[in-house]
Amino acid sequence: MGGKGYSLAFDPLDGSSIIDSNFTVATIWGCWPGSTLVGVDGRSMTSAGVTLYGPRTTMTLAVSEAEHSHEFLLTEKGWERVNTYSVIGEGKLHAPGNLRAIKDNAGYAELVQYWQDNTYQLRYTGGMAPDVLQLLVKKKGIFTNPHSKSAPAKLRCLYETIPIAFIVEKAGGGSSDGEGSILDVKVTNLEQKMQVAYGNKKEVERFERMVGVKYV
């Protein structure tokens, strides 16, 4: 360990707005070396994880020194590794968050229309963690949550968007804040928020072209 220590940031309950509906909720965490979390980015992370509390309890974990992302299932015997995720391919599945943004984010309105015109399958619960991790399980698709003036982005960088981006990119997918990888975003304060896209790299690139940062 070298005596330097680590700092952990976590969201204990991702999906608080849907827990009363008995939907799947989650815990998200990210770990960095050192004693401060201000000024860090996703490239300096040592690990990140998401635990889903649904019909099964699972944990998806990514570590800087290991390839891919790995899913563990909680059983009577403890945690057992059940999946390794290394690719998010092409496929017509979308999880469009913050649809209210289409009111004054013309790029997002066009992107949503593109998905409809091209018969994409809608799979969205309102919980970011399960809505993103399904892309690893299904090995396809895209999750988006953009910004607009009337519907600002609400996802926090430190303990939501960056740890999820770390897991997605380790699994062979892409992430973007509209112009580049979320792993390159510097944390300037603990409550910093941002728009996001995760999933198949080509789908994420389409988000950058059509939505970008024009409305941020």
UniProtKB/TrEMBL annotation:
Cofactor(s) named in the record: Mg(2+)
Gene Ontology MF terms: fructose 1,6-bisphosphate 1-phosphatase activity; metal ion binding
Keywords attached to this entry: Carbohydrate metabolism, Hydrolase, Magnesium, Metal-binding
Keyword Metal-binding: yes
Family annotation (InterPro entries): FBPase_C_dom (IPR044015), FBPase_class-1 (IPR000146), FBPase_N (IPR033391), Fructose_bisphosphatase_AS (IPR020548), SBPase (IPR023079)
Highest rank taxon of the organism: Eukaryota
Single biological process term from Gene Ontology: fructose 6-phosphate metabolic process
Transmembrane stretches, start-end: none
This protein's pathway: Carbohydrate biosynthesis; Calvin cycle
SUPFAM superfamilies: Carbohydrate phosphatase (SSF56655)
Record domain Fructose-1-6-bisphosphatase class 1 C-terminal: where: 90-211
One annotated Gene Ontology cellular component of this protein: cytoplasm
PANTHER family on file: FRUCTOSE-1,6-BISPHOSPHATASE-RELATED (PTHR11556), SEDOHEPTULOSE-1,7-BISPHOSPHATASE, CHLOROPLASTIC (PTHR11556:SF35)
Protein name: Fructose-1,6-bisphosphatase
